[in-house]
Design a protein that fits this description.
Blueprint (H helix, E strand, L loop, with lengths): L15 H12 L2 E6 L5 E5 L15 H4 L4 E4 L4 H13 L5 H11 L3 H9 L3 H22 L4
Antiparallel strand pairs: 1-2, 1-3
Helix pairs in contact: 1-6, 3-6, 4-5
């Protein structure tokens, strides 16, 4: 995410499907640049700067023309830990809640939480749905969409 927030108003509508695609790309580890002029988004693999779309000839262009592009990257670990804590608060009290609370008190709460997810497929599915919803809300916020 950009280190500063620029307020702007998009002059176009962005479909919910496009927002979900952007969110999915971010969750898959891609860096996404949203073009404010065309409404297109460009996905760049952060591991090898490989592009998913072929119409973005110069992946460095987005860095040079920051006024045209909005950079959207993965949420940082502090943000995802906040999401995890919020998710755990939605769990009714009981043994599962106790285990998750303990996992979050551990030295590496992300890893401990993921380990607990491995033991409960329903919990795992619920977490990924919750995380996708939070990710979509974040993308909308970055793009200033209400």
């Amino acid at each position: 995410m950009l280190s500063f927030r620029t307020k702007f108003k998009l002059s176009m509508e962005i479909s919910e499907q496009t927002l979900k695609i952007i969110t999915g790309a971010i969750n898959a580890g891609y860096l996404v640049f949203f073009d404010k002029e065309t409404g297109k988004h460009h996905e760049i693999n952060t591991m090898d700067f490989e592009e998913k779309e072929t119409d973005f000839e110069d992946p460095y262009r987005a860095y040079r023309d920051a006024s045209r592009y909005i950079q959207i990257s993965k949420p940082n670990s502090k943000m995802t830990l906040g999401w995890i804590n919020d998710f755990v608060q939605t769990i009714e009290s009981g043994e599962l809640k106790r285990k998750l609370d303990y996992a979050l008190s551990r030295k590496n709460p992300h890893a401990a939480f993921k380990k607990e997810l491995d033991f409960d497929s329903e919990l795992r599915q619920n977490w990924f749905e919750y995380k996708a919803e939070k990710g979509l809300e974040r993308v909308k916020s970055i793009l200033n969409i209400r």
